[in-house]
Molybdopterin molybdenumtransferase (Holtiella tumoricola), 405 residues
Amino acid sequence: MVGISLEEALDLLEQASRIDIKVEKLLLHAANGRILAKDYYAPISNPPFDRSPLDGYAFKAEDSSGASMDRPVTLKVKGVVYAGEYYEAEVNNQEAVRIMTGAPIPKGCDCVLRQEDTDEGEVEVQIYKALKPFDNYCFKGEDIKEGHLLLKAGEKLSPVKLGILASMGFQEVEVRQPLRMGLLCTGDELTPIGEDLKLGKIYNANEVMIQTKAMELGIQIQVLKMQQDTPEAVAKCLEEHWDEIDLMVTTGGVSVGKKDIMHDVINLLGAKRLFWRIAIQPGTPVLAACYKEKLLIGLSGNPFAALANFELIIRPVVAYLTQDEMLKPIHTTGIMENEFKKKSIKRRFIRAYFEDGKVKLNHNNHASGALYTMSLCNALIDIPAGSTGLDIGEEVKVILVDTRG
Ligand SMILES: Nc1nc2c(c(=O)[nH]1)N[C@H]1C(S)=C(S)[C@@H](COP(=O)(O)OP(=O)(O)OC[C@H]3O[C@@H](n4cnc5c(N)ncnc54)[C@H](O)[C@@H]3O)O[C@H]1N2
Ligand code: MOO
C-alpha cells in the first residue's frame, strides 16, 4: 500500500505545527463567527431591575382581592411610569401606578394588571380582575444573573451571543485572530478566469474553490499568484509570504511527473518533509512539510482530489490549529441505495448524496479530475481498504461536506 494512513498523516501534521494564534479586541458587530479568547461573566443582571411585562397598572395584589367585571375594585392612580424612567415614591394600599411594558415596577407593588382588564382610568382606575402576588411580574436577573458564566473561551460568536454580550453592556470582545492561510495553485496549464483559453490550457477551478471553502471556515485567506511553474519561482513566492501566514496550502505538482515541482520546492525552502502520499484515493499524492514551525500542505491538483484533501486533511488541521471543534468533519453512517464496484483495494472516498440516513449515487463519474458531479453531492463515503465495492443495503461511513462551514 502506497503511503501512510490518513489518521497517521493527521497526527504528524498536528505534532509538527507550532503556531501561536494572537488575540484581538473587536467591536461586537465585527466579531460574528470569531472564537472567544476568554470566558465572559455577567457584570450585571438582566433585566437590571424588576419590570413590567405589560402595559397596565402596578399595585399590591392584595388590593385586587375579589375584583371582577361585576364587582370592580377602585384604586387611586398615583402616577405613571414609562420604560426608561424610574418611579421613586412608595406605593401604598389602594393605590396604583400606570405602568408601561419594560418600566421598573414601583416600590410597594407586587403585580401588574393589563390595561384591558381595567377601565384605563387616569385619576382612579377600576380593576376588573383579582391578581396574586407576582402575577405579570418580571424579576431582576430573570434572563441573566450577575456573575453567571455567559460564554466560554473557545466558543464561536453568533448573532445571539453578540446580543447577550450587548445586553451586558460589553462594547468590545476579545477574540482569537483568524487563522491566516496562503493558497498557491501551481501548474503551467492554468489560465486565470477571465482570460481566453489557449490550446492545452485549462481554467483554474481549484483556486476559488479552496479560497471560498477556507472563507467558510473563518480563515483569512491570502491567494498567491505564481509567476512561473518552476521550483525556484514557487519557493521564492512561498518564502516571500511565509511570515504573513500560519498555514500554506498549494495545489498541483505533487505527483511523479517531470513538472511535479513541489518536491523540489520543499528542498529549496529547507523545509522538513513530513510525508508524501496517503493511502487514500483520491488525493493520494498529498505532500506535507514543516517550515519555520508552520505547515506546508501540497494538495493534489485534480479538483475533486483537492476538494477531498481539503475536507479530509485541511479541515481537521484547521480545527486543531484554531481549537474550533465546530470545524471538525461531521461523521455519520448511511445505508447504500446503489451499488458501487471498484477495482483497487485502496481506501477510497467517493462522492454521494446523503439524506435521511440513505446514501445515493446519483451519477457515475467519480474521476478525480471531474468536479461537476460533486455539485450533485453533499457527502464523501469512506470505503475501507480491502473492499472492492459497496452493495445495496450496506451500511457505510459518511462524511458530510457541505452542511456547514
Ligand atoms: N505516473 C503516475 N502518474 C500519476 C500518479 C502516479 O502515481 N503515477 N498519480 C496520479 C494521481 S492519483 C493524481 S491525484 C495526480 C496528482 O497530480 P498532481 O497533484 O501532481 O497535480 P497536477 O499533475 O498538477 O494536476 C493533476 C490534474 O489536475 C489538473 N489541475 C491542476 N491544477 C488545477 C487547478 N488549479 N484547477 C483545475 N485543474 C487543475 C491538471 O491539469 C491535471 O489534469 O497525478 C496522477 N498522475
Ligand atoms: O489520488 Mo488521485 O486523486 O487518484 O487522482
